[in-house]
Amino acid sequence: MKVKFWGVRGSIPTPLSPHDVEQKVISMAEDVVRAGITDPNEVAGYLRRNYSMLQRATVGGNTTCVSVEWPDTTVILDAGSGIRLLGESLMDGACGNGGAELHLLFSHTHWDHIQGLPFFGPLFQRNLLNIYGCHPNLEQRLRYQQSFDYFPVSLDAFVADLKFHQCVPDTPVDLPGGGRFIPHKLEHPGDCFGYRIEKDGKSVVFATDSEHKPKDRDNHHDVIEFFKDADLVIFDSQYTLEESIIKEDWGHSSAIVGVDLCARANVKKLALFHHEPSYPDAFIHNLLLKAQTYRQVNYNGIPLELFIATEGDAISL
Fold first, then answer.
1. Which of 20, 223, 255, 302 is the most buried (most CB within 10 A)?
2. Please, are residues 212 and 226 in contact by the beta-carbon 8 Å criterion?
3. Of all helices (H) and strands (E), which one includes residue 165?
4. Does one domain contain both 306 and 294?
């Protein structure tokens, strides 16, 4: 399976401001001068060796969208603003001439998870988009978003065929090529559902927009079972640990809690995801460092890899 991040922010799209870009450029340019580099061909290599992606670029500003692919199958998780970029990529490939089949899984219908759908390129060709969700009125909710009061193009205007599938929590759904997914209810206002995608012995868990109380970290809790032995868990780490306590019942979690859950569930990789829109790249990087320290102190010896979900990054499992 190949997993790619197309949108990693929560709540609202958050592009870097002109000032942010300028400050990054100036800081790196000053460092290059201090290092005595005068050959332009050496600059890129120096920056890549000495600066992380978050330092020299950005975590990304688009809202939630992740793709999971294997031969002849594309699964899409949520349709935040990042789905527009995914659509452009698909239109350069199998979807460009129509006839392709895609599978779109919705966790829930808050704006940052649906706002990119009207701009998804494959909808404007004769493709088939299978849409899955556990909310009983998912089609109606998406139609509301594209009612004339809010958007000039209705859901019926798309050339693509939209086929809605009602899912049942904890009941597997088969996908082409021998894969499947399992929805699972998470704690979030208005209800949210995570997805465990399985193929050829590999598993990816998409668990965004979920709040975890202290009881959820018990070794026998259903969240632990949902995460169990996953190769990758994409986890809502929008808040700091302190914020997650202050903002109780807001429906989000922290990197520290993600470490607790994934360590207990024997997860191999933990992607910190759904980044707070007000957090700059450096702050998000600092959250990763704190989570890594917490893992080392509390779960030394457990081979759990932590990383920041970054727009454009891809992982092969």
1. 255
2. no
3. strand 161-166
4. yes
**Per residue in 153-196, pLDDT tens?**
999 999 999 999 999 999 999 999 999 999 999 999 999 999 99
- Coil, strand or helix: which one is 199? strand
Q: What is the pTM of this model?
A: 0.95
Nearest 10 degrees: Cα torsion 15, 21, 27, 30: 160
**249-268 pLDDT, tens digit each:** 888 999 999 999 999 999 99
Phi, psi of 258 (to 5 degrees): -60, -40
Residue located via tokens 């704190």: 290
In the block, residue with structure tokens 């969208």: 65
Alpha helices (runs of H) in the chain, residue ranges in sequence order: 18-34, 40-50, 53-56, 83-91, 138-145, 222-227, 241-246, 255-264, 281-298
- Are 171 and 231 part of one and the same domain? yes
The set of residues, in sequence order, having a beta carbon less than 8 Å from that of 258 and lying 6+ positions away, is 233, 235, 236, 237, 270, 272, 291
Total tally of structural domains belonging to the chain: 2
